[in-house]
Amino acid sequence: MDFYDVEAEFYDLFYFDFDDDIGVYKKYAEQCENVLEFMCGTGRILHHLKHTNMWGVDSHKEMLRRGRENLKGMNVHLIRGDVREIKLDQLFCLVIIGLNSLTMFSREDRIKILKNAYRHLRSGGRVVVDVFNPFEMVEGIVHHGDTVFQGNKVYSRFFVPRREEEHWSILYFYDIVEGKNMERRVAELKIYEITKDMLVEEMEEAGFTVEEIYGDYDMNPFTEESEKIIVVGVKDGSHKEE
User: Fold this and answer.
1) What is the 8-class DSSP label of residue 103?
2) What phi-psi label fits residue 151: left (phi over 0), alpha (psi between -120 and 50 degrees) or beta?
3) Within a 10 A sphere around the Cβ of 67, how many other Cβ atoms?
4) CB 38, CB 45: distance < 8 Å
5) How many CA atoms lie within 13 A of 151 on its CB side?
6) pLDDT of residue 30
7) 17: which residues sit within 8 A by CB, 6+ positions away?
8) What percent of the chain has pLDDT above 70?
9) By three-state DSSP, how is residue 36 classified?
10) What is the DSSP string of 58-75?
11) How far apart are CA 144 and CA 160, in angstroms?
12) Contact present, 122 and 91 (Cβ < 8 Å)
């Protein structure tokens, strides 16, 4: 089963109200006539961004279905497709790759995604990429993610990391407790570690000039102790597209 076959059911419950990252995107979207989000999921970022002309691409049918419900009444176009290769018929001022989405892909696929973002930007347009600064995970240790109380039910999400050769396999447990009864769903996700230097190198390989590197959503400069790696790249038009 695909990770998002399970995650789609719970994503909004745990994350839809999260808006700490929106200020970063608003800064770069203010003067933009259109905005594109790669891997838009259920539309959390676009919902909070509230831009006047928004586009989103995601490959998962159920995530997009929920996104269309969440974004009703807003000027947004949601398209199902693979961000490594999709071709839209217009250019954008800003491309967003938010909240760790890029960590789900190998280096080869990350380059494809970044190059496709570059192709979808007009000259002078920007991409904003947000990933976590790799931290020391311990194989086999149970990490508590989130707990939400809704009516008579308690929803909790836990994960257990397992180290593979080139990535982490993260086993997620979703527990739904009502009274003395519990239902559990399980899903697994691959996560690739991306350091600041790796991300800068990959963005430059894709053609971007790196403009800013932030370490948090308050847009403070990145340090090795930062929790986030938020890189802003500019399409300056000097790179020869493939």
Assistant:
1) G
2) left
3) 24
4) no
5) 5
6) 93
7) none
8) 97
9) strand
10) ES-HHHHHHHHHHTTTSS
11) 9
12) yes
